[in-house]
Write a structure and sequence with these properties.
With 358 residues, the chain is α/β, with parallel strands linked by helices. The protein has helices at 17-30, 56-59, 92-104, 116-127, 152-173, 188-196, 211-223, 259-271, 291-310, 329-332, 344-351; strands at 4-9, 34-38, 51-53, 107-114, 132-136, 176-181, 201-203, 229-234, 246-247, 255-256, 275-279, 315-320, 323-328. The longest helix is centred in the middle third of the chain and has 22 residues, at 152-173.
Length: 358
Amino acid sequence: MKTRIGILTSGGDCPGLNAVLRGASLAAEKLGWEVLGFRDGFEGLLPPGDWIVLDRKCTENIMALGGTIIGTTNRGHFVSKVAGGDRTVVAEEVIEMARTVLKDARVEALIIVGGDGSMTTALQLQEAGINCVGVPKTIDNDLEATAMTFGFDSAVYAVMDALDRLHTTATSHKRAIVVEVMGRHAGWIALHGGLAGGADIILIPEIPFDFDKVAAAIRARDAAGNLSSLVVVAEGARPRDGQQIKRDMEHGEFRLGGIGDVVAHEIAVRTGKETRTCVLGHLQRGGPPTTLDRILGTRFGVKAVQLVNEGHFGSMVSYQSYKVRHVPIADAVNRLRLVPPNGEMVQTARDVEISFGD
């Protein structure tokens, strides 16, 4: 019988996931293995098991597709984060059900593609004796254990494209437009997207801002004859002595959102300028992956299969110094990579007269 491994995608979707599935499937086929893709994240591990065979025919031409052909979820029995970002433990009986499904399906190892919460669950499964290999996925690019994650470049491109379009309408009406982008704890998308798209002000979680200084930057632009302004604000940004804008949820982590409207209102009040808000939301998650994300996703999928073949269970794929390596999953969870407030990227933005509202 062929060796069988499993793979699942968990948490939020992003461009590049299908490239991972294709890379893993083809690398496994070369070894004479069979790959089962469990549907809808960890929930596919529950009895009787919900999976498809990811063979060459199934994965042909999927690399250019956004999302994931096997589905994903950040809800259900395996959630390892609850409201407020606190962590919980997956119930022992749930893990045992998953173990039975994997055993009956003859799956010898499981590749788990997901973010920090999914890696936390992967660690629990590994500690319970289920062979696991992790593949990091987050468009926020905020996992310290890897220099880059696939999906980030595609999200930045979406922000840049939106800013390119908003420049023309803002200029035509001499408006200020506030663009709210994703970024709960880290401002990488806002910083890279704002820099690439020619934003005038960038507000990120790592640099608390002052509404008066944001308004002063816009008034200074007006005085210099630049009568339109684009403000990029990460959803997790907060004013100095203020709080993040949260939307409560019954299950899972709290949702952020609304800071864009708050910033737009304060700009209008302080400057008298006509101001609009544009929330990009899930536009940043959808659509085809960029060239970089297709390549990185493929490399991650291939590396995950190599780690299984070499017996490096409990490891996570990691991109460091332009090479795909691996690190212990235990060293990867709950370690966020934040934007250094005095780092090179921020200084570059400041040198091209981008304000951070501080």
